[in-house]
Amino acid sequence: MTCKELGGACDLEFLANTFEEIAELSKKHGMEMFQNGDDAHLEAMQKMKDLMKDPNAMKTWFENKRKQFDALP
After folding, report:
1. Can you give the residue range of the structural domain that contains 66?
2. Residues 18-67 pLDDT 10s
3. What are the CB-based long-range contacts (under 8 Å, 24+) for 16-22?
């Protein structure tokens, strides 16, 4: 899955065997982009932060991303 597919801002691809692994890779990438002050990623992070304000919305988002990952070959 790409950074964009996981709510980020770029086309960097993450490869993993489990959704938990891919989520961790995405998180590490996000931290790097935060430290670099990347505007596009900071904007994407703000959108995620806003989504997290509603636990049900975040749960639904997370479940949909997991389904997307599980559907990949």
Report:
1. 4-70
2. 999 999 999 999 999 999 999 999 999 999 999 999 999 999 999 999 99
3. 19/65, 19/66, 19/69, 19/70, 22/69
